[in-house]
Amino acid sequence: MRFLQADYLFPIYLPPIKNGVLQINLDGMVIAIHEENTLSGVDIEKFSGILCPGFINAHCHLELSHLFNCISPNLGLINFIKKISGRSKTSQSIIANKIIDAENQMIKNGIVGVGDICNTNDTLFIKKDKNIAYYNFIETFQVHEKKFENTINNSVKIRNQFRFHNLKATIVPHSPYSVPPALMKIIYELIDDSSDVISIHNQETKDENIMFHSKDGEIIKWLLSLGASTTIWENISQSKDVLLNISSQKHLLVHNTFMSKDDLMDVYYCTCPKANIYIEGTTPDYSFFNLEKLCVGTDSLASNSSLSIIEELFCIQENSDFDLNSLLKIGSKNGADCLGFTSLGTFENGKVPGINLLQNIDFNMKITTETTVKRII
Ligand SMILES: [Zn+2]
């Protein structure tokens, strides 16, 4: 047994405990939480700082890690996507090495679970090792009706490759503007007992709202230049109208940078503030989200300087009035709940959530640019 004590313990499902002690077994399983003065005759390991559960990165694209520093900031989403799809081919060995580096970076930064978008099976080789828990969202992006069958067959093939290695994998749509209704229907028909969550990029750019409200703007121009199906926008008046089975299926809507209170539904939302600043130069309005259902992600290294949840939480803190316990809940429990990582997210008895030590939190209990994360387990 180990007994870990810090200035504050953040179990997340309970309020923070000053000088609290976390009792774990040698496998890192939580056995009990103690108030400081209730223990005697045991060796207590003392830490200066805060102990909290391992972080969940609810939205990443690990396979794009080789694009670090390749795409300049502030291009806007559509130019960003054009750059990503128009990039020259990178060798598989470079892609693989950058994936290894990126996973190591996440581990070092206290991340224990990831919701990862996959357009390929490039990350499968590392996920098989289960250094981190992954939920793999096999992303479908197809604007041409004639190509639906090929696209879906490819997605099914990749999903099955992940599942063959006992990895969670579900086929999901990329966004409301890149999947016509007929393809959306096929994607929902593929939901099965092993599919817990549908993830989709949502309202990441103002033009997504303009497209559905006014049938105008940059996205429509771009889609028309691609010869895309006009059914994408014709009979749809807002982004959330593209989602099906909204009451029975768990959804994770990602970005929501240009979402308003009227758009809010009872689903999980994921914010990626540093990527939003990188691409669109702004962050979402955090005033109306349900704090039990807001998760956080890094997005990929193509649009971020790091894969660090504490840096994302700092960015949310600077743009909201959330207290530290709420921020840490966004960074751990909510993502674990959404992605079905039942053993992660809180210091509840029986869980093996990973343990992070946060240092250089200021005296007002605020994350600072100096705050560091160290993995205890
Ligand atoms: Zn993304």
How would you summarize this macromolecular structure in one to three sentences?
The chain is an alpha/beta fold and 377 residues long.
Calculate Rg over CA atoms.
21 Å
CATH C-level class of the largest domain is Alpha Beta
Spatial separation of the terminal alpha carbons: 13 Å
**Class by SSE composition:** alpha/beta
Helix content: 25-40%
Domains (count): 2
Low-confidence stretches: none
Hetero groups: zinc ion
**Percentage of β-strand residues:** 15-25%
SSE ordering: EEEEEEHHEHEHEHEHHEEHEHHHEE
The whole-number mean of residue pLDDT values reads 96
Largest sheet: 7 strands, mixed
Report on this model:
It contains 11 helices and 15 strands. It is α/β, with parallel strands linked by helices and 377 residues long. It folds into 2 domains: 2-52 and 361-375, no CATH class; 55-344, TIM Barrel (Alpha-Beta Barrel), CATH 3.20.20.140. Strands 1, 2, 3, 4, 5, 14 and 15 form a 7-stranded mixed β-sheet that branches. α9 (309-318) packs across α10. The two termini are 13 Å apart. Bound molecules: zinc ion.
Annotation keywords:
single chain; 377 residues; alpha/beta; TIM Barrel; 11 helices; 15 strands; binds zinc ion
List the helices and strands and how they pair.
Elements: E1 2-9, E2 17-18, E3 21-24, E4 30-34, E5 44-53, E6 55-60, H1 77-85, H2 92-108, E7 111-118, H3 124-127, E8 133-140, H4 148-164, E9 168-173, H5 181-189, E10 197-202, H6 206-214, H7 218-226, E11 250-255, E12 268-271, H8 273-280, E13 294-296, H9 309-318, H10 324-331, H11 333-339, E14 355-359, E15 372-375
Parallel strand pairs: 1-5, 6-7, 7-8, 8-9, 10-11, 11-12, 12-13
Antiparallel strand pairs: 1-2, 1-3, 3-4, 5-14, 14-15
Helix pairs in contact: 9-10
